[in-house]
Amino acid sequence: MTAVPVLLYHSVSADPPSWIAPFTVSPQVFTEQLDRLADSGRTVVPLRRLVAAQRGGPPLPENCAVLTFDDGFADFYWTVAPLLSERGLPATLYLTTGAVHPPGEEPPGSLLPPAEMLNWRQITTLDAYGFELGGHTRTHPQLDTLARGRLCEEVSGCKDVMEEALGHPVTSFAYPHGYSSAAVRRKVRAAGWTSACAVANQFSSQADDPLRIARLMVRADTGATQFESWVQGRGAPVAPRPEQLRTKGWRLYRRTRAALGRPVGGPPTD
């Protein structure tokens, strides 16, 4: 299987809030990474093209990559979009709708700590410029720990809010924290999302599951050597791969803690 690096970014900022700083790259580093992609000869394709290939459509270019961004930080509008536009590069931006607000107003609420997030005026501008906008739930919960009613609110409600604001269908989804389960994926499919991104820290491929697309998370500590390995198709396994026993155990632990009213955060380190 040909390895397709689907790169996951969060914030691109020189001065991020401390809670997102480990998942932030500076504008200078981001620019260098875009240059590395270009120098490698990789073609950055829209996520929808990868999904189409996974569903039996036209094959992908031999040497391609995909850019994705989670949560909806305002620096996508001020920093990322100009850098991508001047290079003619597509990207998919996943929005936590409870963190989005009309200009000058407070957001309706999410589990994300305070940060400068996009407003709807900026989002509609990004939409007009051709960036793909996808859903990332309403409040950014761990979906695989939720009861059925709350799960529906997060998955379907997010879609309703986005489509009302944008005036057209949205079909791409991303799981907060990368967490999903068979039941969550069934709900995502039933809500009308036709693709969904996980994390996995694996390459995707044309054989990958379009409702569980593997991504490589670019963090503050992702060094130039590691990034270059990904660009060259090395340094990570290629999806699809069976779910590991430790992943199932971690899900059970998180569900138990959530049921006790003591939810936990991210996954254990390898």
Question: What descriptive keywords fit this protein?
Answer:
alpha/beta, 270 residues, 8-stranded parallel beta sheet, TIM Barrel, two-stranded parallel sheet, single chain, globular
Helix content: 25-40%
Helix-strand string: EEEHEHEHEHEHEHEEHH
The number of E-state strands comes to 10
Q: Report how far the terminal alpha carbons are from each other.
A: 25 Å
CATH superfamily: Glycoside hydrolase/deacetylase
Count of alpha/pi helices: 8
Largest sheet: 8 strands, parallel
Give the amount of beta strand, in percent: 5-15%
Overall tally of structural domains: 1
Structural class: alpha/beta
Q: Outline, from the CA principal axes?
A: globular
What fold name goes in the CATH topology slot? TIM Barrel
Q: Which architecture does the CATH hierarchy give at level 2?
A: Alpha-Beta Barrel
Domain NodB homology: 63-270
InterPro entries: Glyco_hydro/deAcase_b/a-brl (IPR011330), NODB_dom (IPR002509), Polysacch_Deacetylase (IPR051398)
Protein name: NodB homology domain-containing protein
Subcellular location: Secreted
Topology readout:
Layout lengths: L5 E4 L1 E2 L11 E2 L1 H14 L2 E2 L2 H8 L9 E8 L3 H13 L4 E4 L24 H9 L3 E4 L12 H19 L5 E3 L7 H9 L4 E6 L12 E5 L6 H8 L13 H15 L11
Parallel strand pairs: 1-5, 1-10, 2-3, 4-5, 5-6, 6-7, 8-9, 9-10
Helix pairs in contact: 1-7
